[in-house]
What we know:
This protein starts with a helix and ends in a 14-residue tail after the last helix. It folds into 2 domains: 2-233 and 418-431, 3-Layer(aba) Sandwich (Rossmann fold), CATH 3.40.50.2000; 239-414, 3-Layer(aba) Sandwich (Rossmann fold). It has 445 residues and is α/β, with parallel strands linked by helices. The protein has helices at 2-11, 18-28, 86-101, 117-123, 129-132, 137-148, 183-188, 190-199, 208-215, 242-248, 270-280, 299-308, 323-327, 344-351, 365-369, 382-393, 396-414, 416-431, and strands spanning 74-79, 105-110, 125-128, 152-158, 175-179, 202-205, 225-227, 256-261, 288-293, 314-316, 332-334, 356-359, 374-377. It has 18 helices and 13 strands. The strands form 2 sheets. A 7-stranded parallel β-sheet has the order 3-2-1-4-5-6-7, sandwiched between helices. A 6-stranded parallel β-sheet has the order 10-9-8-11-12-13, with helices on both faces. The relative contact order is 0.13. Helix 1 packs antiparallel against helix 2 and helix 14 (344-351) crosses helix 17.
Amino acid sequence: MKRIAALLGNYARQPGRLPGLLAAAAGGLRRPGLSGVVPDASRLPASGASRHSVLRVGTVPATARPARDRASGTVLVVVHDLGIGGAQEVALQFADWLLRETGHRVKFVAMRDGPQRPRFEAVAELFCIGRNWGGERRALRRRLERWAGPDVRGILVNSVASGGFYALWRRDVPSIAFIHELEQILDRHRPAFARILARADRIVAGSGAVRDVLARQPGLRPDRLVQAYPFIEPARVDPGGRAAMRAALGAGPLDFLVCGCGVLHWRKSPDVFLDVAARLGGGPQGNLRFVWIGGGPDGKRCRQRIRRERLERVSITGFLPDVTGALHAADLFLLPSQEDAFPLSALHAAEAGVPVICFRDAGGMPEFVARGCGLALPFGDSAAMARAVLDYAADPERRAREGAAGRQAVAEEFVVDRGAPGLYAHLLAEMHPPRRRNPVGLAAE
């Protein structure tokens, strides 16, 4: 009902658009966290310090949450594309929270199109750069700024790949950049990253690991760098459906179900997940079952390896409409990623009471499991991960203890109603002070 109210409120000023978007809104009503409407999964994209000021999620003072009548104007939320991914989920949830809890209007700007376009349009008006590109940058810039309107008060540039937005935006509006990426991805988007470093008033690191990487960037003043964790929408899962979901994933009542999750490509290291499964087979009791939830560009190669090595207790689901439901069916979650800033899939697993095993020096998840809800192992050590799987399988009390700790940590700090106010506080801090014109010396056009 909250989504319907947000949709109607947003489009009351645009009656001509409402009928065509009601169907998309209905699809968005069910989205639990990473789940959502995927009209065409085949088109999914492959993508994916003590001096620093750190604002932890869930510790935002009451003054950072202005009453509705104090907030005004439009907030632009910029995303790199309209595909499936953690950054896109954070953008959707943050926009939804702004509409629900503040007086701001919200508009999305997407650098590229994608299959989740209906979900974004069900929340707020959308301008897709890719669809509007006419070959002439100045004309596109004018079109974008006319569409945005004269009352834009703040901008969230969400992810490093969204930094190209600054090449098309010249108005002096406060902006913050929420960075969810580490070294290799930052290097792959170096021009967009350079624009963020030059233009964003404040850069928000999505984990301590990201903050440490950003702190090494030349010319980035410590006072511009802060930290806030990403967040998830609480899952709405029927506990009675767990057995049915386990059966759908090929796990019997006595099986120990080990899950991984994410787009199948190099950054998520699905090969390491398969290495662990190959080392263990069915395990000493013959009851281990390994399921990777997701698909992607390396899916064919991974399935070929499964067939070649006869890994009969390993399967890959492909993209699912209900990822959180599948994670609630797991007994243990493996995060074999070689570079992952703070993956939402691990938060969803923890919210389901599933312990998380990850690697050190691969991103921010060790910061989370340090709360007593999992284990961080030496980087890339598949043998250690295999041993840990056996340890957890043999210790139900440990699983229950760490699962409860993870569930509590997510509820207290990593759900949208806890995390979104922290991100908004950073934007609000840049929107309120008097601002000088043309702070980066942009040439007038």
